[in-house]
């Protein structure tokens, strides 16, 4: 690719948008992605392997618990964290999903709702990548409606007994701790617990035949009379708003991250269009192909500007749940559309692992529906615009 070609960074205008810290974080994570993650990602995805060997390196970069403060966490800006997610997902959504779950769900739940003892015990080890966490909210029959969960907890003397099943849990099979949400009795409040690997009655299971997020662990959790001391309960977590607050926090990283996957698709498509010759010239010289590339660039620039703006609001504590829903809905739709267009632009080559875009497309099918489905975020926006609840 010639040096005279316009870089997407120039279209976005990153240098004038970002602080020095944010540019440094992005460059540092980008180098790690290019040198350590990218070379093996096609093989890892095809074989269903999560490169766990990279976890200590990600921890050393400071991206685990990156935007949390204290307790061994780096405390960088939300924009810097979003850019880190962008760079990791430029490689693969599954790798970014690991970072998101560790940081924005498992660690955030302890950081926001835990006791000082819990924070001091777990967060430094999780930031260092020595303890891996997962987040147990979704159930086989309670996805978009988490309030209908059937996992139950009840007092038994000084302890709690927890019973239930959680489904579609990232990191389930390798997690040292799980943040598990359960309802007290049939009409009580939703409570959160830290459940440690190896506790009697607690187990993680594989979900076979997964065709998306293959370079990521996804499993189920079963809890059969798991006995937990009171010290395992998150004391500040009260009601369904607590786990939903974790999800709102996580959606920001998801929405920022998918731009990276879209960008990788655009860059692969442009390279392909300049190298692939048909009818005596590169297909990149054809108007229809240039129109596709221009449309992709359009959407990536708009999503990037939106994400930085909402990241700035998040850093000021001013971003709203509706704005995060808009960001997640817009960016995930955009990224999946670009991955599909990139696949089509490459013709038959686009369905192979070698060219990369089909891997992104399959992964992005998951981002469209997790952390709130596209339909749910549509209804969140609809309710905000009309005042009518259509759920």
Question: Which labels suit this protein?
Answer:
single chain, 391 residues, alpha+beta, Butyryl-Coa Dehydrogenase, subunit A, domain 1, Butyryl-CoA Dehydrogenase, subunit A, domain 2, Butyryl-CoA Dehydrogenase, subunit A, domain 3, 3 domains, seven-stranded mixed sheet, two-stranded antiparallel sheet, 12 helices, 11 strands
Plain-language structure description:
The model has no long low-confidence stretch (mean pLDDT 95). Helix 5 (78-91) packs across helix 8 (241-275). This protein starts with 7 loop residues before the first helix and ends in a 5-residue tail after the last helix. The chain has helices at 8-12, 14-17, 20-47, 55-61, 78-91, 93-113, 116-127, 241-275, 287-315, 321-345, 357-367, 374-386, and strands spanning 69-70, 73-74, 133-136, 152-156, 159-170, 177-184, 190-196, 202-206, 218-229, 277-278, 281-282. A hairpin with a 5-residue loop joins strand 6 and strand 7. With 391 residues, it is an alpha+beta fold. The protein contains twelve helices and eleven strands. The radius of gyration is 21 Å and the shape is globular. It folds into three domains: 8-127, Butyryl-Coa Dehydrogenase, subunit A, domain 1; 133-232, Butyryl-CoA Dehydrogenase, subunit A, domain 2, CATH 2.40.110; 244-386, Butyryl-CoA Dehydrogenase, subunit A, domain 3, CATH 1.20.140.10. Strands 3, 4, 5, 6, 7, 8 and 9 form a seven-stranded mixed β-sheet that branches. A two-stranded antiparallel ribbon has the order 1-2.
């Amino acid at each position: 690719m010639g040096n005279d070609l316009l870089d997407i960074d120039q279209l976005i205008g990153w240098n004038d948008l970002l602080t020095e810290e944010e540019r440094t974080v992005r460059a540092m994570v980008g180098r790690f992605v290019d040198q350590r993650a990218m070379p093996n990602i096609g093989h890892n995805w095809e074989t269903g392997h999560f490169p766990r060997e990279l976890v200590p390196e990600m921890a050393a970069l400071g991206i685990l618990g990156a935007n949390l403060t204290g307790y061994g966490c780096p405390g960088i800006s939300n924009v810097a964290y979003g850019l880190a997610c962008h760079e990791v997902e430029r490689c693969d959504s599954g790798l970014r999903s690991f970072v998101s779950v560790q940081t924005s769900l498992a660690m955030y739940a302890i950081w926001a709702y835990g006791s000082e003892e819990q924070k001091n015990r777990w967060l430094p080890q999780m930031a260092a990548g020595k303890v891996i966490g997962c987040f147990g909210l979704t159930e086989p029959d309670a996805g978009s409606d988490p309030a209908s969960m059937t996992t139950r907890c009840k007092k038994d003397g000084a302890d709690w007994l927890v019973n239930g099943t959680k489904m579609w849990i990232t990191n389930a099979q390798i997690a040292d701790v799980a943040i598990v949400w359960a309802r007290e009795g049939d009409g009580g409040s939703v409570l959160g617990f830290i459940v440690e690997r190896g506790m009697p009655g607690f187990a993680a299971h594989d979900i076979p035949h997964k065709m998306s997020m293959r370079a990521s662990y996804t499993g189920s959790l079963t809890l059969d009379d798991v006995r937990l001391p009171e010290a395992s309960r998150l004391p500040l977590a009260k009601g369904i708003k607590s786990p939903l607050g974790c999800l709102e926090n996580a959606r920001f990283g998801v929405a920022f991250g998918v731009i990276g996957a879209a960008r990788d698709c655009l860059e692969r498509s442009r390279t392909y269009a300049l190298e692939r010759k048909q009818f005596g010239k590169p297909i990149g010289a054809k108007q229809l192909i240039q129109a596709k590339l221009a449309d992709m660039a359009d959407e990536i620039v708009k999503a990037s500007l939106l994400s930085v703006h909402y990241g700035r609001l998040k850093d000021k504590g001013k971003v709203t749940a509706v704005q995060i829903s808009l960001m997640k809905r817009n960016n995930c739709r955009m990224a999946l559309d670009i991955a599909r267009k990139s696949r089509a632009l490459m013709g038959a080559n686009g369905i192979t692992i070698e060219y990369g875009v089909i891997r992104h497309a399959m992964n992005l099918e998951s981002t469209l529906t997790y952390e709130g489905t596209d339909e749910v975020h549509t209804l969140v926006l609809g309710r905000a615009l009309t005042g009518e609840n259509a759920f």
